[in-house]
């Protein structure tokens, strides 16, 4: 029987306004994929990034103009080749979910991975005034890893934010400037922050200048992790000796297959690896979590940030990712009680 694909917008209200160096949002939208074949329905999701010229509208329009090029759910290459990354991500996830359901095995088993080897995920604290930032840190309780967004405000304000967080929090701290600094200011800030035991700094400067990342890395002791500079596997060779690690997001690289290509390439280059996410539902977060036994760090906290997630999948135990053992992604849709 044919593959029947439906795509619809999914609106996710947030617990708190989420602010980064690029802007603020109180709700976010993703593209929900439903893929049916021979009585089996699978789920996928994409959280397109405007920075890369993709949107929910562009995803829906793509598939309206480009019907699926086959009916075999196992024909990944035929179905996914040539599809833009965000549009490919949603279909890639749905295909993995469908194949897992047909075979009756969870994705981690399909990939031959050990579900007990999942890392601890960080919990992200967006940019806010000092009082609100500390409130969010307290709400995180004893979560073992925080990622603090920086990149806006004066150098002193950003340093004081980390100082205030470290005063009340003794877990691991990661920072993310979201391209908000210059190379020179990054060096100055990172040298000041070194005393606060920062695990790493994510994408300190605008993407496109690997040599500037190398300049920072050679002058600051806090490890540097590329995010916007590492969209897919083809970006990684230019980062050789410029960074310590990369952040893989399924929506950037086009899904599970793209992430696996990045993981293998990064390992060959001696880079550490983080699996990250956008603000998204449990579908995308769970799909990435299935890959987490292959990486060093995870930042899969999208479901933490939403006020109501209509799906359930990956769960958390003291920050550790607990993978669902249902077939495919193992994601379930919430039952609506009348």
3D architecture notes:
The chain is built from twelve helices and 15 strands. With 338 residues, it is an alpha/beta fold. The protein folds into two domains: 4-104, Enolase-like, domain 1; 115-333, Enolase-like C-terminal domain (TIM Barrel), CATH 3.20.20.120. It is globular, with a radius of gyration of 20 Å.
Could you give the topology of this structure?
Blueprint: E1 4-20, E2 23-37, E3 40-46, H1 56-65, H2 76-80, H3 85-103, H4 107-110, E4 123-125, H5 130-139, E5 145-149, H6 155-168, E6 172-176, H7 183-193, E7 198-202, H8 210-219, E8 224-226, E9 245-248, H9 250-253, H10 256-268, E10 272-275, H11 282-291, E11 297-298, H12 302-305, E12 311-312, E13 315-317, E14 320-322, E15 332-333
Helix pairs in contact: 5-6, 6-7, 7-8
Short descriptors:
338 residues; alpha/beta; Enolase-like, domain 1; TIM Barrel; 2 domains; 8-stranded parallel beta sheet; 3-stranded antiparallel beta sheet; 12 helices
The coarse silhouette is: globular
Mean pLDDT: 93
Tell me the radius of gyration. 20 Å
- Largest sheet, order of strands side by side? 4-5-6-7-8-9-10-11
Compact summary:
By secondary structure, this protein is α/β, with parallel strands linked by helices. It has helices at 56-65, 76-80, 85-103, 107-110, 130-139, 155-168, 183-193, 210-219, 250-253, 256-268, 282-291, 302-305; strands at 4-20, 23-37, 40-46, 123-125, 145-149, 172-176, 198-202, 224-226, 245-248, 272-275, 297-298, 311-312, 315-317, 320-322, 332-333.
